[in-house]
# Entry
Amino acid sequence: MTDQMQKEADLASGKGTADALSHETRGAVKCLEIGLINNMPDATLAATERQFKDLIGQAADMPVRLHFFALAEIARGEGAARHICTHYADVETLLHGQLDGLIITGCEPKAASLQDEPYWPSLARIIDWAADNTRSTIFSCLAAHAAVLHLDGIKRVPVGQKHSGIFDCAVLTEDPLMKGLGPDLRVPHSRLNGLDAAALTASGYEILSASPRVGVDIFAKRQKSHFVFLQGHPEYDSESLLREYRRDVTRFLRGERPNFPAVPEDYFDPLVEKHLVAFAERTIDGKSRHPHRELASLLDDVHPEKTWRASAAGLYRNWLCALTARD
# Structure
């Protein structure tokens, strides 16, 4: 990230960012105005913020100012609430301005139906706003599921065993968003639900990339704003899936989930993966005397390689370039 970009991102991360969202301001600073609505849980709130900062910094060949927003209806702990109060603006400020691009992340659901979540009315209103007031919006993972449910009534479906790992996805189109990414791109996925490709295409969505293992990866809908939907997480840092795997194993050990999580695919070094599979078998059979300690000994010094770095930067570089090309 250039010094100028970092400075602008830092300046835009506090309250009052709506002051910079008008067309006049955008023209004055001659940079792209990108909003991030960060709906991730408290434990990953700051990490998600950092991941998108880093990714956009790697991808951008032009000045970018990043604005942070939060939905007021998502319950937060004291620390996260204080961080949001200091560094974020309420999404209500968006309704009085415009952005070049917007990124919306998902929120771990609590209700059986996404439409029953307390934040649903606000999120639906933002989706409608984005259609008229952004050049393009990216919906990340659970946000993609929420968006297609709101826009076209398409419901997500359980995938059975959780999709977790790094997957090679085939590029299916010559859309400019996918330029230079094919024939395959590597993408982290971490989800329990998915979307049916036939249902998406029947409603006018174009599938841009997909995998035999995890189904639809990236899809899009061209309208006044180009809506782009990601079922994966190209923004993840090298240890995101490790942290999630450790969390899920810990939940199993505490009796908070019924089954032991599968090791993320094509992510760990083969020897580490072999040890983790053996650990899972011992733990399930009750043969690990101190599973918490054993888990720590297996993972504390593990640092997976970010093998999807080039794919992620290429995707976001194409997205940012498309925003400037539509001036």
Remarks:
- The first strand starts at residue 32 and ends at 37.
